[in-house]
Amino acid sequence: MTSFSTALTDALGIDIPILLAPMAGGPTTPELVSAVSDAGAFGQFGAAYLNGAAIRDMVGELQSRTNKGFGINLFVPEDPLVTEAEIAAATAAIAEYFAQFGVTPPDSVSNVMPDIEEQVEAVIEGGIKLSSFHLGHGSQPVIAEIKDAGIITAASATSVAEALEAEAAGIDFIIAQGSEAGGHRTTWIGDWQDSMTGTMSQITQLTNAVSTPIIAAGGIMDGRGLAAALALGACGVQMGTAFLTCPEADVHPSFQQALLNVEGDNTVMTRTFSGRPARGLRNRFITEMESSGAPVLPFPLQNTLTGSLRAAAGKVDDTDFMSMWCGQAAALSRGLPAAELIEQIVAEYQEAANSAFHSSIG
Ligand SMILES: Cc1cc2nc3c(=O)[nH]c(=O)nc-3n(C[C@H](O)[C@H](O)[C@H](O)COP(=O)(O)O)c2cc1C
Question: Which CATH superfamily is domain 7-78+113-246 in?
Answer without folding.
Answer: Aldolase class I (3.20.20.70)
